[in-house]
Amino acid sequence: MSYVTEVMQTVVARNPGEPEFHQAVKEVLDSLEPALERHPKYRANRILERLTEPERVIIFRVPWQDDRGNFQINRGFRIEFNSAIGPYKGGLRFHPTVYLGILKFLAFEQVFKNSLTTLAMGGGKGGSDFDPKGRSDGEVMRFCQSFMTELFRHIGPATDVPAGDIGVGGREVGFLFGQYKRLRNEFTGVLTGKGVNWGGSLIRPEATGYGATYFAEEMLATRGDSLEGKVCLVSGAGNVAQYTVEKVNQLGGKVVSLSDSNGTIHDPSGIDEEKLAYVLDLKNGRRGRINEYASHFRGSQYRDGARPWDIPCDCAFPSATQNEINGEDAKVLVKNGCTLISEGANMPSDPDAVQVFLDQGIFYGPGKAANAGGVAVSGLEMAQNSQFMSWSREEVDARLKGIMKRIHDSARSTAEEYGHPANYVVGANIAGFVKVADAMLDQGLV
Questions:
Q1: Given 3.40.50.10860, 3.40.250.10, 3.40.50.80, 3.30.450.20, which CATH number is that of 3-187?
Q2: pLDDT, tens digit (0-9, with 9 covering 90-100), for 262-274
Q3: How much is the pTM?
Q4: Could you confirm whether 194 is annotated as catalytic?
Q5: How far is the C-alpha of 193 from the C-alpha of 150, rounded, in Å?
Q6: For 106-143, what is each residue's pLDDT tens digit?
Q7: How many Å separate Cα 20 from the centre of its chain?
Q8: CA spacing 20 to 30 A to 287: which of 116, 151, 185, 417?
């Protein structure tokens, strides 16, 4: 039995009922074989066993009161997975599907993603099964204050720096930060994604979408190509999707889809600047559903309960949630002419889909590399906070573009070095792993 198989069996036995975590670990471990063969020190020091066990898991009760005076109880989490190269860093997700296994998968992925950015950040993730949809601002505020009343004792600018994720946008980050400041009596960069007027960074809301697009452009550039004239599919309708559309438009491509949990809109004429402004108001202001787009713009179609993956395209940017593309979806994408996938969401392609993309030899940018732009600019926000200064929009965007190029080049060169040319999965996993593993060896058995 191979070392990887032994470790994987232990992970499954030790973490029952957590399929997303098992999937994330297996995807990484399977691609590490070349590095483990070349560097026996990792097995001798049981790095995989240590790396797949979180350093700390915090679970707590979140009691709060709704607008009708009823008491509500939710569960809060923070997974502090690995701090070998810096303080824990990763978002908070508020969604009814949140449970321990989802957050462990996200935190595990975050370890390698943060390593790839070249910034000093470890990996963590957190959240709650609270659903902010349909809740008033007052209810969201009371929930966030209760959540932070427990979380504040476990985080800090040099310990653990949360950010937003699904269900946690500017409103939620503001409420969380306000309660932290109130409890600790200090104004510090403990959360990223803050408002620009009080410590946030320009380009932070746009960063994940911009970064996924920059990564796609870097992949295409290896063949002397670009996004100019490309028809693109984007799933989701939140920050990542919105700013993927914006950057694709800026680089000359045409996005023809967006989606939410209820269905997909298809607009063959493209989601231009005017239409995107409508989407931003719809989703960020009125918090409406994407089906309203089709009634507002002639020529577009709403497909109830559908995902966009059967629409012909050149490029696809899955930007909604985990496992939104399965093996059959992947086959349809390739059959319909798709030659590039750049993942804006975390693990949006299931293992069967990933295998299809790799077998067909199309460009496939895995989430831990392609969507690292968000955490990269979070790291830049931390740097600005530590210096009590703010950089211009142009400077942050230039730094983001440079980071995404370095991530792309590192993943590509590492894949070649270990005998898997153009395989960004192998390249990203090994490049992220080696940096963290070597830091763990340097710091002893901790």
A1: 3.40.50.10860
A2: 999 999 999 999 9
A3: 0.92
A4: no
A5: 20
A6: 999 999 999 999 899 999 999 999 999 999 999 999 99
A7: 14
A8: 151
